[in-house]
Amino acid sequence: MTKTRRTTITELRSIDELMSPEGVPLRFEVAGVGVRIGAQVTDLLLTVLAAFAVVVLLGYSGVDSPATLTAIAAMAFLFIRVPYYVLTELAWNGQTIGKRMMQIKVVANDGGPLTTYSLVVRNLMKEAEIFLPGTLLVTLNDKAQIESLIALAWIIAVFLVPILNKRRRRLGDLIAGTYVVHLPKPVLLSDLTQQTAPASEGTRNFVFLSHQLDHYGIYELQTLEKVLRAQDRRLSRRAAESRIAAEAKIVESIRKKIDYADPVPQEDHRRFLREFYNAQRGHLEQRQLFGDERADKFYKDELGSPARSDLER
Amino acid sequence: MEEPDLIRSARFRQEREADWRRLEELVATAETQGLHRMNFEAARDLATLYRQATTSLAIAREISLDRALLEYLEALTARAYLSVYAPQERVGGLIQRFLVQGASQAIRRSWVFLLIGFLCMFLGGLTGYLLYFENASWFYVFIPSELAGGRGPAASTEHLRSVIYDEDPSSSGLGAFAAYLFSHNTRIAIFVFGLGAFICAPAILLTFYNGLILGAFLALHADRGLGWDLVGWLSVHGVTEISAICIACAGGVKLGAAVLFPGEMRRPDALQAAGRDAVKLALVAALMLLVAALLEGFARQLVQSLDARLFLGWGVGALWLIWFMLAGRRVQ
After folding, report:
1. Type and span of the H or E element at A31
2. Which of A35, B52, B132, B283 is a good FRET partner for B240, with 20 to 30 A between their CA atoms?
3. B 113-142 residues inside an 8 A Cβ radius of A
4. Is pLDDT above 80 for B173?
């Protein structure tokens, strides 16, 4: 049961591997359609504002026929929009202002640096993909129904392309060989094994024998890690009480599973969990070095299971 | 106090943590200021520390089960990778290289597709011309009424002449330039290129159709003895503009051909490979359309004599040809 839940989470986040030139695969989270539309709208607002400013400026300088002004507005929008996308992505390494705000970024799918060519292509294709049918849809009147339908079908097809492929690439991305990822945030949490638990005078250390550490795998270890990290968080009294109860439950089930005979008093629960974590991690890492990797507590999943690559993270 | 009984992966982390922190700082500066503005030591350290971090990541994946550490290293190396492998080119240099070498080399490389593009246009023109003389009502079939602007088989010769030699200052200048840019032909050029990527046929058909319009128009005026006058009127911007449509068609056909006949490659790869030149063709076509719009907006109404119009139009055409043929040749 736990296994299926884990795989759905990774599918939702859609992690993608990219081979760096150093030969170490790097993992990125593919940016979804929603985030990208958000970035796109921001960029669109910026360019429309700039074009509007230009038109207002020209409006004061004596051009007054509305037809001419519309044409000039469309031209100003085009001349601001096309260089805006290409130049910002060139200058900021695959990020427009909208993408910077959304913390997403264009990367090349062969792992190499972004080339000028690919940035030009993906943004020129944006013209053909989005803006051309978009303007058609806006400008066509109800007389030209067939054309409107074609434009509508075009837009739908263009939106289907990123939804249908795994890396959420639109047509321009496909031709340019790029895709868009979330910028990962490096946050280094402290190492749990280095935090010494506050051991009061006279308490004995917990000793775990090697056969007692043979029951759990990586998944259980990292779940325990999550529980231990949550201990530093400040909680309300009721939540703190329920946490103490949960910890007691965990301690009990671990004791039962590994056959730990001595009872653990309430005030030692945390220390027990920490020391068990240390011992278990050291043990599992040791086994892994010798090629005996253990994904989780189920024996059948030990080797060659599809979930293995997810768990190595 | 150094703990003697640290487990292996904790020791691993302790030894390298300072380097990772430093790399984190360097990546932050590289992202905010750009690599260009970093001093030598910082840039050098960034590259070295990045490579160390990739090694650390590879090792950590093998030896460490500390989820926090693994996630941190994943994020850090990914982030550093993105700033180390950022494109290092200046925009000015790029534009210069495109104008001096890239564009003309791409044009010369794709001569077959250009031939197809021009052939489509020429055959379309020929067909339109011949069909008009067979039956003048073909004109109405080919040409949408808003494009004809009152010109047609029913119009008087005087009217046709007045359109060609019309001095109307209000229709020149920026407004006309802008209006023109979004006129029929520009849209055709964009469509022709864009549709090429899907399959060749729409691009070829559209170009052919554009040729039909041209041919029928020419035939109408030739019928009234205004053939040369129309050629002059069209030449001012038409030499540039019609070539631009043909070049856009060539780019589109090139993409379409890559989809239809990918050869030894997979289709996406073939599309990507063909895209390199096709995009340059599209950019050249866009540049030419821009120049054509300038000529249309400003020059056409100013230059009224036939000879001058012919000279201007074909002179600009010759300049394009010189650029395509001579620029960016390697000295042997």
Report:
1. none
2. B132
3. none
4. no
| Residue B147 pLDDT greater than 70, yes or no | no
Lowest mean pLDDT, pick from A245-249, B1-5, B56-60: B1-5
Cβ neighbours of A176 in B, within 8 Å: 272, 275
**What residues 184-243 of chain A have any CB closer than 8 A to a CB of chain B?**
184-194, 196, 218, 221-222, 225-226, 229
- Out of A193, A289, A313, whose CB is closest to B70? A313
Interface contact flag, A225 B66, Cβ < 8 Å: yes
Q: Is B331 on the interface with A (CB under 8 A)?
A: no
Which sign does the torsion angle of CA A21, A23, A24, A28 carry?
positive
Contact A285 B89 (CB under 8 A): no
Q: Please, are residues B229 and B162 in contact by the beta-carbon 8 Å criterion?
A: no
Distance in angstroms (rounded) separating the CA atoms of residues A169 and A179: 6
> Across the strands, what pairs with A29?
A15
Among B26, B23, B28, residue whose Cα is nearest residue B49: B23
What phi-psi label fits residue B173: left (phi over 0), alpha (psi between -120 and 50 degrees) or beta? Answer: left
Q: What is the pTM of this model?
A: 0.73
Distances (CA, A) of A32 to A100, A294, B71, B102: 15, 33, 21, 35
Q: Are B325 and B111 contacting, i.e. CB atoms less than 8 angstroms apart?
A: no
Tokens (6 digits) for B67: 């989820």
Residue B182: list chain A partners with CB under 8 A. Answer: 71, 74-75
Q: How far is A299 from chain B (nearest CA, A)?
A: 19
∠ CA B171-B177-B183, nearest 5°, is: 95
Number of separate helices (H) and strands (E) present in chain A: 12, 4
Average pLDDT taken over every residue of chain A: 79
Structure tokens at A185: 């945030």
Q: Do B72 and A26 touch (CB under 8 A)?
A: no
A28, A75, A220: best to mutate for the B interface, most B CBs within 10 A = A75
The answer to whether B100 contacts chain A (CB < 8 Å) is: no
CB B101 within 8 A of CB B231: no
pLDDT score recorded for residue A311: 46
ipTM over 0.90? The verdict is no
Q: How far is CA A233 from the centre of its chain?
A: 24
CA-based angle B144:B235:B180, to the nearest 5? 50
Q: Residue B225's pLDDT is what?
A: 79
How far apart are the C-alpha atoms of B316 and B291, rounded to whole Å?
9
Instruction: Please check whether residue B63 is in contact with residue A289, taking contact to mean a CB–CB distance below 8 angstroms.
Output: yes
Using one digit for the tens of pLDDT, what is the confidence trace for A152-169?
Answer: 887 888 888 888 888 888
The pLDDT tens digits of the residues spanning A96-123 come to 999 999 999 998 888 888 888 888 888 8
Dist. CA B332–CA A104, nearest whole Å? 46
CA distance B154 to B135: 13
Minimal Cβ distance to A26: which of B9, B62, B81: B81
- Proportion of chain B above pLDDT 90, given as a percent: 11
Contact A281 B71 (CB under 8 A): no
- What share of chain B in percent tops pLDDT 70? 85
